[in-house]
Protein backbone atom coordinates (compact mmCIF):
# COMPACT_ATOMS: atom_id res chain seq x y z
CA UNK A 1 0.00 0.00 0.00
CA UNK A 2 1.18 3.51 -0.86
CA UNK A 3 2.65 5.51 2.07
CA UNK A 4 0.03 8.28 1.54
CA UNK A 5 -2.75 5.77 2.21
CA UNK A 6 -1.64 5.71 5.86
CA UNK A 7 -1.95 9.47 6.30
CA UNK A 8 -5.11 11.56 6.71
CA UNK A 9 -5.30 13.89 3.68
CA UNK A 10 -6.83 16.73 5.74
CA UNK A 11 -4.43 16.96 8.72
CA UNK A 12 -1.44 15.00 7.28
CA UNK A 13 -1.21 12.94 10.49
CA UNK A 14 -0.62 9.20 10.27
CA UNK A 15 -3.63 7.03 11.11
CA UNK A 16 -3.48 4.94 14.26
CA UNK A 17 -5.36 1.72 14.99
CA UNK A 18 -6.06 2.35 18.68
CA UNK A 19 -9.71 3.36 19.35
CA UNK A 20 -8.68 4.80 22.75
CA UNK A 21 -6.01 7.03 21.24
CA UNK A 22 -6.81 10.54 22.52
CA UNK A 23 -5.66 12.02 19.23
CA UNK A 24 -8.54 10.27 17.43
CA UNK A 25 -6.52 9.16 14.43
CA UNK A 26 -8.55 6.08 13.58
CA UNK A 27 -9.49 5.95 9.87
CA UNK A 28 -13.23 6.59 9.36
CA UNK A 29 -15.10 6.52 6.07
CA UNK A 30 -17.81 8.88 4.77
CA UNK A 31 -20.82 7.83 2.63
CA UNK A 32 -18.97 8.88 -0.54
CA UNK A 33 -16.25 6.33 0.25
CA UNK A 34 -13.53 8.80 1.25
CA UNK A 35 -11.57 8.12 4.44
CA UNK A 36 -10.23 10.67 6.96
CA UNK A 37 -9.15 10.45 10.58
CA UNK A 38 -11.79 10.46 13.33
CA UNK A 39 -10.50 13.81 14.58
CA UNK A 40 -11.00 15.52 11.21
CA UNK A 41 -14.40 13.90 10.74
CA UNK A 42 -15.42 15.20 14.16
CA UNK A 43 -14.38 18.69 12.98
CA UNK A 44 -16.45 18.23 9.80
CA UNK A 45 -19.44 17.21 11.94
CA UNK A 46 -19.02 20.32 14.05
CA UNK A 47 -19.07 22.52 10.95
CA UNK A 48 -21.85 20.58 9.17
CA UNK A 49 -24.84 22.53 7.86
CA UNK A 50 -28.41 21.18 7.53
CA UNK A 51 -27.34 18.00 9.33
CA UNK A 52 -25.09 16.87 6.45
CA UNK A 53 -21.31 16.48 6.41
CA UNK A 54 -19.60 17.70 3.27
CA UNK A 55 -16.63 15.66 2.03
CA UNK A 56 -13.35 17.68 1.88
CA UNK A 57 -12.95 16.29 -1.67
CA UNK A 58 -16.17 18.12 -2.62
CA UNK A 59 -18.05 14.91 -3.43
CA UNK A 60 -21.70 15.26 -4.38
CA UNK A 61 -22.85 12.69 -1.83
CA UNK A 62 -22.96 14.11 1.70
CA UNK A 63 -23.05 12.13 4.95
CA UNK A 64 -25.70 12.57 7.66
CA UNK A 65 -24.33 13.88 10.94
CA UNK A 66 -24.54 11.15 13.54
CA UNK A 67 -23.86 12.78 16.91
CA UNK A 68 -22.68 9.55 18.54
CA UNK A 69 -20.13 8.48 15.95
CA UNK A 70 -17.33 10.12 13.97
CA UNK A 71 -18.12 8.24 10.75
CA UNK A 72 -17.95 4.50 10.16
CA UNK A 73 -14.67 2.68 10.75
CA UNK A 74 -12.69 1.80 7.65
CA UNK A 75 -11.96 -1.80 8.69
CA UNK A 76 -9.77 -2.65 5.69
CA UNK A 77 -7.50 0.32 6.30
CA UNK A 78 -7.65 -0.20 10.07
CA UNK A 79 -6.25 -3.73 9.62
CA UNK A 80 -3.49 -2.43 7.31
CA UNK A 81 -2.64 0.35 9.83
CA UNK A 82 -2.45 -2.18 12.69
CA UNK A 83 -0.16 -4.44 10.62
CA UNK A 84 2.05 -1.48 9.76
CA UNK A 85 2.23 -0.39 13.41
CA UNK A 86 3.28 -3.91 14.39
CA UNK A 87 5.90 -3.99 11.62
CA UNK A 88 7.23 -0.56 12.69
CA UNK A 89 7.35 -1.73 16.31
CA UNK A 90 9.37 -4.75 15.23
CA UNK A 91 11.77 -2.58 13.22
CA UNK A 92 12.32 -0.29 16.22
CA UNK A 93 13.02 -3.36 18.38
CA UNK A 94 15.61 -4.56 15.86
CA UNK A 95 17.25 -1.11 15.71
CA UNK A 96 17.45 -0.96 19.50
CA UNK A 97 19.02 -4.41 19.50
CA UNK A 98 21.50 -3.10 16.95
CA UNK A 99 22.23 -0.12 19.21
CA UNK A 100 23.33 -2.37 22.05
CA UNK A 101 25.82 -4.14 19.74
CA UNK A 102 24.79 -5.94 16.57
CA UNK A 103 26.17 -9.27 17.84
CA UNK A 104 22.80 -10.85 18.63
CA UNK A 105 21.06 -10.00 15.34
CA UNK A 106 19.77 -12.88 13.24
CA UNK A 107 20.41 -13.05 9.50
CA UNK A 108 16.85 -11.79 8.85
CA UNK A 109 17.35 -8.87 11.23
CA UNK A 110 20.69 -7.97 9.64
CA UNK A 111 18.89 -7.92 6.28
CA UNK A 112 16.18 -5.68 7.76
CA UNK A 113 18.68 -3.11 9.10
CA UNK A 114 20.58 -3.17 5.80
CA UNK A 115 17.31 -2.41 4.00
CA UNK A 116 16.28 0.36 6.44
CA UNK A 117 19.70 2.04 6.29
CA UNK A 118 20.17 1.54 2.52
CA UNK A 119 23.44 -0.23 3.32
CA UNK A 120 23.30 -2.92 0.61
CA UNK A 121 26.27 -1.38 -1.20
CA UNK A 122 28.37 -1.30 1.96
CA UNK A 123 27.78 -4.71 3.53
CA UNK A 124 29.56 -7.76 2.15
CA UNK A 125 26.69 -10.26 2.11
CA UNK A 126 29.03 -13.17 1.31
CA UNK A 127 31.17 -12.62 4.40
CA UNK A 128 29.19 -14.77 6.85
CA UNK A 129 26.85 -13.73 9.65
CA UNK A 130 29.36 -12.73 12.33
CA UNK A 131 31.37 -10.63 9.88
CA UNK A 132 28.18 -8.99 8.59
CA UNK A 133 27.18 -8.15 12.18
CA UNK A 134 30.57 -6.50 12.76
CA UNK A 135 30.41 -4.52 9.50
CA UNK A 136 26.87 -3.47 10.30
CA UNK A 137 27.76 -2.25 13.76
CA UNK A 138 30.69 -0.18 12.43
CA UNK A 139 28.49 1.36 9.75
CA UNK A 140 25.59 2.07 12.07
CA UNK A 141 27.79 3.76 14.65
CA UNK A 142 29.35 6.05 12.01
CA UNK A 143 28.02 9.60 11.97
CA UNK A 144 25.51 11.43 9.79
CA UNK A 145 27.53 13.97 7.75
CA UNK A 146 28.42 16.97 9.95
CA UNK A 147 26.22 15.74 12.81
CA UNK A 148 26.88 14.39 16.29
CA UNK A 149 24.25 11.69 15.63
CA UNK A 150 25.11 8.20 14.51
CA UNK A 151 23.30 6.75 11.51
CA UNK A 152 21.54 4.39 13.89
CA UNK A 153 20.20 7.27 15.98
CA UNK A 154 19.09 8.98 12.76
CA UNK A 155 17.24 5.86 11.62
CA UNK A 156 15.47 5.56 14.97
CA UNK A 157 14.34 9.18 14.81
CA UNK A 158 13.03 8.54 11.28
CA UNK A 159 10.99 5.54 12.54
CA UNK A 160 9.54 7.74 15.26
CA UNK A 161 8.63 10.74 13.08
CA UNK A 162 7.72 8.65 10.91
CA UNK A 163 9.42 9.32 7.59
CA UNK A 164 11.26 7.22 5.07
CA UNK A 165 13.68 9.96 4.10
CA UNK A 166 17.03 10.28 5.91
CA UNK A 167 17.95 13.10 8.30
CA UNK A 168 20.02 16.06 7.09
CA UNK A 169 21.89 18.52 9.35
CA UNK A 170 20.85 22.18 9.09
CA UNK A 171 22.59 23.83 12.01
CA UNK A 172 25.05 22.92 14.74
CA UNK A 173 26.08 25.39 17.44
CA UNK A 174 29.73 24.27 17.64
CA UNK A 175 30.03 24.65 13.86
CA UNK A 176 27.71 27.53 12.92
CA UNK A 177 27.83 29.80 15.95
CA UNK A 178 25.80 30.23 19.13
CA UNK A 179 23.56 33.21 18.36
CA UNK A 180 19.84 33.24 17.62
CA UNK A 181 20.65 34.82 14.21
CA UNK A 182 23.09 31.98 13.39
CA UNK A 183 20.40 29.41 14.11
CA UNK A 184 17.68 31.23 12.14
CA UNK A 185 20.05 31.73 9.17
CA UNK A 186 20.99 28.03 9.01
CA UNK A 187 17.53 26.60 9.61
CA UNK A 188 15.61 29.03 7.37
CA UNK A 189 12.03 27.90 6.74
CA UNK A 190 12.82 24.17 6.64
CA UNK A 191 10.35 21.71 8.19
CA UNK A 192 9.85 19.32 9.85
CA UNK A 193 12.58 20.00 12.40
CA UNK A 194 14.44 17.76 14.82
CA UNK A 195 16.21 19.54 17.70
CA UNK A 196 18.91 17.53 19.49
CA UNK A 197 20.68 18.60 22.69
CA UNK A 198 23.82 16.97 24.07
CA UNK A 199 25.13 17.49 27.56
CA UNK A 200 27.62 15.11 29.19
CA UNK A 201 26.26 11.59 28.82
CA UNK A 202 22.79 12.87 27.97
CA UNK A 203 21.35 13.29 24.51
CA UNK A 204 17.72 14.07 23.87
CA UNK A 205 15.50 16.15 21.67
CA UNK A 206 12.16 17.07 20.22
CA UNK A 207 10.58 16.74 16.81
CA UNK A 208 8.38 19.61 15.54
CA UNK A 209 6.29 19.44 12.36
CA UNK A 210 6.34 23.23 11.76
CA UNK A 211 9.06 25.62 10.56
CA UNK A 212 10.60 28.38 12.73
CA UNK A 213 8.66 31.55 11.97
CA UNK A 214 10.17 34.62 13.69
CA UNK A 215 7.87 37.61 14.31
CA UNK A 216 8.23 40.74 12.14
CA UNK A 217 8.60 42.87 15.26
CA UNK A 218 11.97 42.16 16.99
CA UNK A 219 10.39 42.85 20.39
CA UNK A 220 7.54 40.36 19.85
CA UNK A 221 7.16 36.59 20.24
CA UNK A 222 5.46 34.46 17.60
CA UNK A 223 3.57 31.54 19.13
CA UNK A 224 1.84 28.73 17.22
CA UNK A 225 0.90 25.05 17.49
CA UNK A 226 2.25 21.99 15.71
CA UNK A 227 2.78 18.25 16.22
CA UNK A 228 5.65 17.39 18.58
CA UNK A 229 7.37 14.29 19.92
CA UNK A 230 10.09 14.16 22.57
CA UNK A 231 12.74 11.47 22.63
CA UNK A 232 15.86 10.46 24.53
CA UNK A 233 18.84 9.08 22.64
CA UNK A 234 21.27 8.50 25.52
CA UNK A 235 21.67 8.79 29.29
CA UNK A 236 18.04 8.59 30.43
CA UNK A 237 17.10 5.01 29.51
CA UNK A 238 19.05 1.85 28.67
CA UNK A 239 18.23 2.31 25.00
CA UNK A 240 16.96 5.22 22.86
CA UNK A 241 13.34 5.88 23.83
CA UNK A 242 10.45 7.79 22.34
CA UNK A 243 8.71 9.54 25.20
CA UNK A 244 4.92 10.08 25.11
CA UNK A 245 3.91 12.08 22.11
CA UNK A 246 2.23 15.43 22.43
CA UNK A 247 -1.14 16.03 20.86
CA UNK A 248 -0.75 18.23 17.75
CA UNK A 249 -3.20 20.69 19.29
CA UNK A 250 -1.04 21.11 22.38
CA UNK A 251 2.49 21.20 20.95
CA UNK A 252 3.67 24.85 21.09
CA UNK A 253 6.45 26.66 19.29
CA UNK A 254 7.46 30.12 20.49
CA UNK A 255 9.90 32.12 18.40
CA UNK A 256 11.21 35.39 19.81
CA UNK A 257 12.23 38.39 17.74
CA UNK A 258 15.91 39.46 18.00
CA UNK A 259 15.40 41.42 21.24
CA UNK A 260 13.75 38.76 23.37
CA UNK A 261 14.80 35.93 25.64
CA UNK A 262 14.31 33.03 25.73
CA UNK A 263 14.96 32.90 22.01
CA UNK A 264 13.07 29.75 21.15
CA UNK A 265 10.73 27.41 22.95
CA UNK A 266 9.82 24.03 21.49
CA UNK A 267 7.27 22.77 23.95
CA UNK A 268 9.19 21.86 27.14
CA UNK A 269 12.58 22.56 25.60
CA UNK A 270 13.77 26.18 25.74
CA UNK A 271 16.80 27.62 23.94
CA UNK A 272 18.67 30.86 24.57
CA UNK A 273 17.46 31.33 28.15
CA UNK A 274 20.34 33.73 28.94
CA UNK A 275 19.50 35.90 25.91
CA UNK A 276 23.00 35.44 24.40
CA UNK A 277 23.64 31.86 23.48
CA UNK A 278 21.06 29.42 22.07
CA UNK A 279 22.79 26.56 23.89
CA UNK A 280 21.70 28.00 27.26
CA UNK A 281 18.82 25.53 27.59
CA UNK A 282 16.10 24.55 29.93
CA UNK A 283 13.94 21.47 29.77
CA UNK A 284 10.81 20.84 31.77
CA UNK A 285 8.97 17.90 30.30
CA UNK A 286 6.36 17.87 33.06
CA UNK A 287 6.57 14.08 33.30
CA UNK A 288 6.62 12.34 36.65
CA UNK A 289 8.90 9.36 37.16
CA UNK A 290 6.79 6.27 37.88
CA UNK A 291 3.67 7.92 36.45
CA UNK A 292 3.76 9.37 32.93
CA UNK A 293 7.48 9.01 32.25
CA UNK A 294 8.14 5.82 30.24
CA UNK A 295 9.33 2.85 32.32
CA UNK A 296 13.05 2.37 32.80
CA UNK A 297 13.91 6.05 33.32
CA UNK A 298 17.18 6.30 35.24
CA UNK A 299 17.97 10.00 34.73
CA UNK A 300 17.67 12.70 37.43
CA UNK A 301 14.44 13.96 38.97
CA UNK A 302 13.57 16.89 41.25
CA UNK A 303 12.07 16.68 44.78
CA UNK A 304 8.56 16.22 43.35
CA UNK A 305 9.77 13.36 41.10
CA UNK A 306 9.55 15.46 37.92
CA UNK A 307 12.02 14.06 35.40
CA UNK A 308 14.94 16.42 34.69
CA UNK A 309 16.45 15.61 31.34
CA UNK A 310 20.17 16.35 30.90
CA UNK A 311 20.81 16.27 34.65
CA UNK A 312 19.71 18.65 37.35
CA UNK A 313 22.31 21.33 38.14
CA UNK A 314 21.26 24.59 36.54
CA UNK A 315 22.35 28.23 36.65
CA UNK A 316 20.12 31.19 37.40
CA UNK A 317 19.40 33.90 34.83
CA UNK A 318 16.87 36.77 34.76
CA UNK A 319 14.80 34.63 32.39
CA UNK A 320 14.93 31.43 34.42
CA UNK A 321 17.25 28.52 35.18
CA UNK A 322 19.40 27.02 32.46
CA UNK A 323 22.17 24.55 31.68
CA UNK A 324 24.65 25.02 28.86
CA UNK A 325 24.47 22.29 26.22
CA UNK A 326 27.78 20.88 24.94
CA UNK A 327 26.20 20.96 21.51
CA UNK A 328 22.86 21.65 19.89
CA UNK A 329 21.74 20.60 16.44
CA UNK A 330 18.77 21.17 14.21
CA UNK A 331 18.07 18.63 11.48
CA UNK A 332 15.39 18.09 8.86
CA UNK A 333 14.42 15.15 6.64
CA UNK A 334 15.24 14.64 2.97
ZN1 LIG B 1 -7.13 14.09 9.94
ZN1 LIG C 1 -15.81 12.12 -0.74
From TrEMBL:
Domain of life assignment: Eukaryota
A Pfam family recorded for this sequence: zf-RING_UBOX
Keywords associated with the record: Metal-binding, Zinc, Zinc-finger
SMART domains: RING
GO molecular function: zinc ion binding
RING-type domain location: 8-56
Classification via InterPro entries: E3_ubiquitin-ligase_RING (IPR052667), Znf-RING_euk (IPR027370), Znf_RING (IPR001841), Znf_RING/FYVE/PHD (IPR013083), Znf_RING_CS (IPR017907)
Protein name: RING-type domain-containing protein
Amino acid sequence: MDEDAFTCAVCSNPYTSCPYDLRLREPRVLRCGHTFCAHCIRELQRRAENGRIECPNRCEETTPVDPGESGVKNYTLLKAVADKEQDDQHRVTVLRKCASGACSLSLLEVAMVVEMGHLDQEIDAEAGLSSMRRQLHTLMTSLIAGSMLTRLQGLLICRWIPTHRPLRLLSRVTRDGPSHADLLRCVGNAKPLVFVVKRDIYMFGVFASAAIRPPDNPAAVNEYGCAMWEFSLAGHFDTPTLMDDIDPEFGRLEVAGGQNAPMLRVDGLTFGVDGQDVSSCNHSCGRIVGYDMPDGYRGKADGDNNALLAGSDQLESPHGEFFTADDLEVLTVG
